[in-house]
Amino acid sequence: MGLDQQIIEGNRTALGQGITLLESTLPEHEKQAQELLKLCLPHSGKSIRIGITGVPGVGKSTFIESIGKLLTSQGKKVAVLAIDPTSEQNQGSILGDKSRMHELAANENAFIRPSPTSGTLGGVANKTKDSIILCEAAGYDVILIETVGVGQSETTVSNLADFFLLLMLAGAGDELQGIKRGIMELADGLIINKSDGDNITNANNAALEYKRSLHLFPAMENGWTAEVSTCSALESRGILEIYETINKFDTQMISSGWKNKNREKQTIYWLHHRVKEELGNKKYNSLLAEGKLKILEKELRKGKTIYQLLSSL
Ligand SMILES: Nc1nc2c(ncn2[C@@H]2O[C@H](COP(=O)(O)OP(=O)(O)OP(=O)(O)O)[C@@H](O)[C@H]2O)c(=O)[nH]1
Ligand SMILES: [Mg+2]
Protein backbone atom coordinates (compact mmCIF):
# COMPACT_ATOMS: atom_id res chain seq x y z
CA MET A 1 0.00 0.00 0.00
CA GLY A 2 1.32 3.46 -0.84
CA LEU A 3 2.13 5.98 1.84
CA ASP A 4 -0.85 8.10 0.75
CA GLN A 5 -3.26 5.21 1.34
CA GLN A 6 -1.76 4.47 4.72
CA ILE A 7 -2.10 8.10 5.71
CA ILE A 8 -5.70 8.24 4.51
CA GLU A 9 -6.43 5.13 6.58
CA GLY A 10 -5.24 7.06 9.62
CA ASN A 11 -1.91 5.33 10.23
CA ARG A 12 0.02 7.66 12.54
CA THR A 13 3.44 6.24 11.70
CA ALA A 14 2.77 6.79 8.00
CA LEU A 15 1.62 10.34 8.73
CA GLY A 16 4.88 11.00 10.58
CA GLN A 17 6.86 9.58 7.65
CA GLY A 18 4.87 11.71 5.22
CA ILE A 19 5.67 14.88 7.15
CA THR A 20 9.35 13.93 7.32
CA LEU A 21 9.26 13.60 3.55
CA LEU A 22 7.69 17.05 3.22
CA GLU A 23 10.34 18.54 5.50
CA SER A 24 13.24 16.90 3.72
CA THR A 25 15.51 19.15 1.72
CA LEU A 26 16.89 16.35 -0.45
CA PRO A 27 15.98 16.93 -4.09
CA GLU A 28 14.91 13.31 -4.63
CA HIS A 29 12.46 13.63 -1.74
CA GLU A 30 10.92 16.80 -3.04
CA LYS A 31 9.27 15.09 -5.98
CA GLN A 32 7.91 12.28 -3.83
CA ALA A 33 6.67 14.81 -1.31
CA GLN A 34 4.83 16.77 -3.98
CA GLU A 35 3.25 13.61 -5.34
CA LEU A 36 2.13 12.62 -1.85
CA LEU A 37 0.67 16.06 -1.27
CA LYS A 38 -1.24 15.93 -4.54
CA LEU A 39 -2.76 12.56 -3.60
CA CYS A 40 -3.73 13.75 -0.12
CA LEU A 41 -5.15 17.10 -1.21
CA PRO A 42 -8.57 15.76 -2.31
CA HIS A 43 -8.98 14.20 1.15
CA SER A 44 -8.11 17.39 3.02
CA GLY A 45 -9.91 20.53 4.10
CA LYS A 46 -12.48 19.27 6.58
CA SER A 47 -10.84 20.27 9.84
CA ILE A 48 -10.85 23.36 11.93
CA ARG A 49 -7.38 24.88 12.05
CA ILE A 50 -6.60 26.74 15.25
CA GLY A 51 -3.51 28.90 15.60
CA ILE A 52 -2.28 29.44 19.16
CA THR A 53 0.25 32.09 20.03
CA GLY A 54 1.62 33.92 23.05
CA VAL A 55 4.92 34.77 24.72
CA PRO A 56 7.18 31.96 25.99
CA GLY A 57 5.83 30.54 29.22
CA VAL A 58 2.28 31.85 28.80
CA GLY A 59 1.04 28.25 28.79
CA LYS A 60 0.48 27.37 25.12
CA SER A 61 1.60 23.76 25.47
CA THR A 62 -0.34 23.30 28.70
CA PHE A 63 -3.41 24.79 27.01
CA ILE A 64 -3.02 22.46 24.05
CA GLU A 65 -2.72 19.47 26.35
CA SER A 66 -5.88 20.58 28.13
CA ILE A 67 -8.03 21.35 25.09
CA GLY A 68 -6.59 18.30 23.32
CA LYS A 69 -7.71 16.02 26.12
CA LEU A 70 -11.16 17.61 26.08
CA LEU A 71 -11.49 17.10 22.32
CA THR A 72 -10.24 13.52 22.28
CA SER A 73 -12.65 12.72 25.13
CA GLN A 74 -15.41 13.90 22.77
CA GLY A 75 -14.17 11.40 20.19
CA LYS A 76 -12.34 13.94 18.04
CA LYS A 77 -8.97 13.37 16.44
CA VAL A 78 -6.49 16.13 17.26
CA ALA A 79 -3.22 16.99 15.54
CA VAL A 80 -0.70 19.37 17.09
CA LEU A 81 1.90 21.05 14.92
CA ALA A 82 4.46 23.48 16.25
CA ILE A 83 6.22 26.37 14.58
CA ASP A 84 9.08 27.57 16.68
CA PRO A 85 11.10 30.37 15.13
CA THR A 86 13.43 30.33 18.12
CA SER A 87 14.16 26.62 18.08
CA GLU A 88 17.60 27.06 16.58
CA GLN A 89 18.79 29.05 19.56
CA ASN A 90 16.58 27.36 22.06
CA GLN A 91 16.58 23.65 21.43
CA GLY A 92 15.10 22.87 24.81
CA SER A 93 11.62 24.04 24.00
CA ILE A 94 10.66 21.08 21.88
CA LEU A 95 11.61 18.64 24.58
CA GLY A 96 9.66 20.75 27.04
CA ASP A 97 6.63 20.57 24.77
CA LYS A 98 6.72 16.80 24.58
CA SER A 99 6.85 16.36 28.31
CA ARG A 100 4.15 19.00 28.81
CA MET A 101 1.82 17.18 26.48
CA HIS A 102 2.59 13.69 27.67
CA GLU A 103 -0.99 12.65 28.37
CA LEU A 104 -2.19 13.90 25.03
CA ALA A 105 0.79 12.33 23.28
CA ALA A 106 -0.20 8.94 24.68
CA ASN A 107 -3.74 9.21 23.32
CA GLU A 108 -4.26 7.23 20.12
CA ASN A 109 -6.51 9.97 18.73
CA ALA A 110 -3.78 12.57 19.02
CA PHE A 111 -0.80 13.27 16.82
CA ILE A 112 1.93 15.63 18.00
CA ARG A 113 4.66 16.90 15.75
CA PRO A 114 7.38 19.31 16.91
CA SER A 115 8.58 22.14 14.76
CA PRO A 116 11.16 21.55 12.05
CA THR A 117 14.40 22.91 13.44
CA SER A 118 15.89 24.63 10.45
CA GLY A 119 14.90 27.16 7.86
CA THR A 120 13.37 30.59 7.79
CA LEU A 121 10.09 31.27 9.54
CA GLY A 122 8.26 31.51 6.22
CA GLY A 123 9.92 28.32 5.00
CA VAL A 124 9.01 26.42 8.13
CA ALA A 125 5.44 27.70 8.07
CA ASN A 126 5.20 26.73 4.42
CA LYS A 127 6.01 23.13 5.38
CA THR A 128 3.47 23.33 8.18
CA LYS A 129 0.85 24.35 5.64
CA ASP A 130 1.52 21.10 3.78
CA SER A 131 1.64 19.07 6.99
CA ILE A 132 -1.86 20.34 7.76
CA ILE A 133 -3.05 18.82 4.48
CA LEU A 134 -1.58 15.43 5.41
CA CYS A 135 -3.13 15.57 8.90
CA GLU A 136 -6.53 16.38 7.42
CA ALA A 137 -6.22 13.54 4.93
CA ALA A 138 -5.50 11.28 7.91
CA GLY A 139 -8.85 12.30 9.39
CA TYR A 140 -7.83 14.78 12.08
CA ASP A 141 -10.80 16.97 12.97
CA VAL A 142 -8.92 19.68 14.81
CA ILE A 143 -5.46 20.97 13.95
CA LEU A 144 -3.73 22.99 16.66
CA ILE A 145 -0.76 25.05 15.52
CA GLU A 146 1.44 26.36 18.34
CA THR A 147 3.81 29.22 17.74
CA VAL A 148 5.89 31.34 20.08
CA GLY A 149 4.90 34.97 19.93
CA VAL A 150 7.95 36.80 18.69
CA GLY A 151 6.50 39.39 16.37
CA GLN A 152 6.65 38.13 12.78
CA SER A 153 5.46 34.62 13.54
CA GLU A 154 1.90 35.62 14.41
CA THR A 155 1.17 37.10 11.03
CA THR A 156 2.60 34.06 9.33
CA VAL A 157 0.62 31.65 11.47
CA SER A 158 -2.56 33.62 10.99
CA ASN A 159 -2.20 32.68 7.33
CA LEU A 160 -2.45 29.00 8.27
CA ALA A 161 -5.33 29.07 10.73
CA ASP A 162 -9.09 29.51 10.57
CA PHE A 163 -9.24 30.71 14.16
CA PHE A 164 -6.41 32.61 15.75
CA LEU A 165 -6.06 32.50 19.51
CA LEU A 166 -3.84 34.78 21.56
CA LEU A 167 -2.89 33.64 25.06
CA MET A 168 -1.91 36.31 27.55
CA LEU A 169 -1.04 36.80 31.18
CA ALA A 170 -2.61 39.22 33.60
CA GLY A 171 -0.45 42.04 34.84
CA ALA A 172 2.46 41.39 32.54
CA GLY A 173 1.82 44.60 30.65
CA ASP A 174 1.36 44.87 26.93
CA GLU A 175 4.95 45.90 26.34
CA LEU A 176 6.27 42.91 28.21
CA GLN A 177 4.10 40.54 26.26
CA GLY A 178 5.20 42.06 23.00
CA ILE A 179 1.59 42.51 22.06
CA LYS A 180 1.35 44.98 19.31
CA ARG A 181 -1.90 46.39 18.16
CA GLY A 182 -1.54 44.51 14.89
CA ILE A 183 -1.47 41.17 16.64
CA MET A 184 -4.51 41.94 18.73
CA GLU A 185 -6.28 42.85 15.54
CA LEU A 186 -5.49 39.42 14.10
CA ALA A 187 -6.87 37.52 17.07
CA ASP A 188 -10.31 35.91 16.95
CA GLY A 189 -10.02 35.04 20.61
CA LEU A 190 -7.98 36.47 23.49
CA ILE A 191 -7.47 34.44 26.62
CA ILE A 192 -5.96 35.41 29.92
CA ASN A 193 -4.35 32.16 31.09
CA LYS A 194 -3.24 31.15 34.59
CA SER A 195 -6.50 32.34 36.06
CA ASP A 196 -6.09 30.24 39.18
CA GLY A 197 -5.07 30.60 42.82
CA ASP A 198 -4.34 34.20 43.77
CA ASN A 199 -4.42 35.28 40.18
CA ILE A 200 -8.15 34.97 39.43
CA THR A 201 -9.11 38.58 40.22
CA ASN A 202 -6.16 39.90 38.26
CA ALA A 203 -7.12 37.75 35.31
CA ASN A 204 -10.73 38.92 35.38
CA ASN A 205 -9.62 42.55 35.54
CA ALA A 206 -7.23 42.07 32.64
CA ALA A 207 -10.02 40.46 30.62
CA LEU A 208 -12.24 43.47 31.23
CA GLU A 209 -9.48 45.80 30.18
CA TYR A 210 -8.87 43.92 26.95
CA LYS A 211 -12.58 43.85 26.21
CA ARG A 212 -12.63 47.60 26.56
CA SER A 213 -9.64 48.18 24.35
CA LEU A 214 -10.97 45.84 21.66
CA HIS A 215 -13.95 48.11 21.27
CA LEU A 216 -11.62 50.72 19.86
CA PHE A 217 -10.59 48.45 17.01
CA PRO A 218 -12.33 48.47 13.66
CA ALA A 219 -14.70 45.55 13.00
CA MET A 220 -13.14 42.51 11.36
CA GLU A 221 -13.80 41.81 7.72
CA ASN A 222 -15.53 38.52 8.57
CA GLY A 223 -18.05 40.20 10.86
CA TRP A 224 -16.66 38.52 13.97
CA THR A 225 -15.87 40.38 17.18
CA ALA A 226 -12.94 38.88 19.08
CA GLU A 227 -14.00 37.24 22.32
CA VAL A 228 -12.07 37.71 25.52
CA SER A 229 -12.07 35.15 28.32
CA THR A 230 -10.00 33.70 31.14
CA CYS A 231 -8.84 30.15 31.72
CA SER A 232 -6.57 27.95 33.71
CA ALA A 233 -4.86 25.56 31.35
CA LEU A 234 -3.23 23.86 34.33
CA GLU A 235 -6.54 23.17 36.07
CA SER A 236 -8.49 22.75 32.84
CA ARG A 237 -10.98 25.45 33.69
CA GLY A 238 -12.52 27.72 31.07
CA ILE A 239 -11.34 25.43 28.28
CA LEU A 240 -14.74 24.07 27.26
CA GLU A 241 -16.04 27.64 26.96
CA ILE A 242 -13.20 28.52 24.62
CA TYR A 243 -13.90 25.52 22.48
CA GLU A 244 -17.56 26.53 22.32
CA THR A 245 -16.51 29.97 21.11
CA ILE A 246 -14.34 28.38 18.42
CA ASN A 247 -17.24 26.19 17.36
CA LYS A 248 -19.58 29.17 17.20
CA PHE A 249 -17.03 30.96 15.05
CA ASP A 250 -16.64 27.95 12.75
CA THR A 251 -20.39 27.53 12.25
CA GLN A 252 -20.77 31.23 11.54
CA MET A 253 -17.86 31.34 9.08
CA ILE A 254 -19.07 28.25 7.24
CA SER A 255 -22.55 29.62 6.79
CA SER A 256 -21.32 33.03 5.68
CA GLY A 257 -18.91 31.41 3.23
CA TRP A 258 -15.98 33.17 4.90
CA LYS A 259 -14.18 29.96 5.90
CA ASN A 260 -13.65 28.89 2.31
CA LYS A 261 -13.01 32.39 1.11
CA ASN A 262 -10.39 32.91 3.78
CA ARG A 263 -8.66 29.60 3.01
CA GLU A 264 -8.54 30.59 -0.63
CA LYS A 265 -6.99 33.91 0.33
CA GLN A 266 -4.42 32.05 2.41
CA THR A 267 -3.51 29.70 -0.42
CA ILE A 268 -2.97 32.72 -2.65
CA TYR A 269 -0.78 34.28 0.04
CA TRP A 270 1.39 31.14 0.04
CA LEU A 271 1.55 31.08 -3.74
CA HIS A 272 2.97 34.61 -3.74
CA HIS A 273 5.27 33.72 -0.87
CA ARG A 274 6.65 30.66 -2.67
CA VAL A 275 7.18 32.46 -5.96
CA LYS A 276 9.11 35.18 -4.16
CA GLU A 277 11.15 32.68 -2.19
CA GLU A 278 11.96 30.44 -5.17
CA LEU A 279 12.53 33.03 -7.85
CA GLY A 280 13.53 36.13 -5.94
CA ASN A 281 11.93 39.53 -5.65
CA LYS A 282 12.98 40.78 -9.05
CA LYS A 283 11.41 37.93 -10.97
CA TYR A 284 8.37 38.03 -8.69
CA ASN A 285 7.82 41.70 -9.47
CA SER A 286 8.10 41.16 -13.18
CA LEU A 287 5.64 38.23 -13.07
CA LEU A 288 3.30 40.43 -11.07
CA ALA A 289 3.60 43.25 -13.59
CA GLU A 290 3.00 40.89 -16.52
CA GLY A 291 -0.22 39.69 -14.89
CA LYS A 292 1.17 36.17 -14.77
CA LEU A 293 0.40 35.77 -11.06
CA LYS A 294 -3.27 36.50 -11.66
CA ILE A 295 -3.30 33.62 -14.13
CA LEU A 296 -1.62 31.37 -11.58
CA GLU A 297 -4.19 32.37 -8.96
CA LYS A 298 -6.94 31.25 -11.34
CA GLU A 299 -5.23 27.91 -11.87
CA LEU A 300 -4.88 27.52 -8.11
CA ARG A 301 -8.60 28.02 -7.67
CA LYS A 302 -9.20 25.27 -10.21
CA GLY A 303 -7.31 22.83 -7.98
CA LYS A 304 -3.71 22.95 -9.18
CA THR A 305 -1.12 22.77 -6.41
CA ILE A 306 1.37 25.57 -5.77
CA TYR A 307 4.18 23.22 -6.75
CA GLN A 308 2.62 22.34 -10.08
CA LEU A 309 2.32 26.04 -10.77
CA LEU A 310 5.88 26.77 -9.69
CA SER A 311 7.29 24.10 -11.94
CA SER A 312 5.35 25.60 -14.85
CA LEU A 313 7.23 28.89 -14.50
N1 LIG B 1 -0.65 28.41 37.48
C1 LIG B 1 -0.66 28.07 36.22
N2 LIG B 1 0.46 27.71 35.59
C2 LIG B 1 0.40 27.37 34.29
C3 LIG B 1 -0.83 27.39 33.56
N3 LIG B 1 -0.55 27.03 32.29
C4 LIG B 1 0.76 26.80 32.21
N4 LIG B 1 1.35 26.98 33.41
C5 LIG B 1 2.77 26.81 33.75
O1 LIG B 1 3.56 27.75 33.02
C6 LIG B 1 4.77 27.17 32.60
C7 LIG B 1 4.91 27.31 31.07
O2 LIG B 1 3.89 26.55 30.45
P1 LIG B 1 4.00 26.05 28.93
O3 LIG B 1 2.72 25.37 28.62
O4 LIG B 1 5.23 25.29 28.71
O5 LIG B 1 4.13 27.43 28.17
P2 LIG B 1 4.41 27.70 26.60
O6 LIG B 1 3.68 28.93 26.28
O7 LIG B 1 4.12 26.48 25.82
O8 LIG B 1 5.97 27.99 26.60
P3 LIG B 1 6.97 27.93 25.35
O9 LIG B 1 6.68 26.67 24.55
O10 LIG B 1 8.33 27.88 25.98
O11 LIG B 1 6.77 29.16 24.55
C8 LIG B 1 4.75 25.72 33.07
O12 LIG B 1 5.45 25.63 34.27
C9 LIG B 1 3.28 25.44 33.31
O13 LIG B 1 3.04 24.47 34.26
C10 LIG B 1 -2.01 27.78 34.27
O14 LIG B 1 -3.13 27.82 33.73
N5 LIG B 1 -1.87 28.11 35.58
MG1 LIG C 1 5.27 25.37 24.40
Number of DSSP strands? 7
Mind describing the biggest β-sheet? 7 strands, parallel
Strand fraction equals 5-15%
What is the H/E string?
HHHEHEHHEHEHEHEHEHHHH
**Terminal CA distance:** 33 Å
Output the number of helix runs: 14
Q: Point out poorly predicted stretches.
A: none
Proportion in helices: 40-55%
What ligands are attached or bound here? Answer: guanosine-5'-triphosphate, magnesium ion
Alpha-beta classification: alpha/beta
- In the sheet with the most strands, the strands line up as 3-2-4-1-5-6-7
What does this structure look like?
The protein is built from 14 helices and seven strands. It is α/β, with parallel strands linked by helices and 313 residues long. Helix 12 (258-290) runs antiparallel to helix 13 (292-301). The longest helix has 33 residues, at 258-290. The protein is globular. The mean pLDDT is 88. It binds guanosine-5'-triphosphate and magnesium ion (MG).
TL;DR?
By secondary structure, the chain is an alpha/beta fold. Helix content is 55%, strand content 12%.
Please specify the SSE layout and strand pairing.
Blueprint: H1 3-8, H2 12-23, H3 27-40, E1 48-54, H4 60-73, E2 78-83, H5 92-100, H6 102-106, E3 110-113, H7 121-137, E4 142-148, H8 152-158, E5 163-168, H9 181-186, E6 189-192, H10 200-214, E7 227-230, H11 239-256, H12 258-290, H13 292-301, H14 306-311
Parallel strand pairs: 1-4, 1-5, 2-3, 2-4, 5-6, 6-7
Helix pairs in contact: 2-7, 12-13
The structure holds guanosine-5'-triphosphate and magnesium ion.
Guanosine-5'-triphosphate binds next to helix 4 and helix 5.
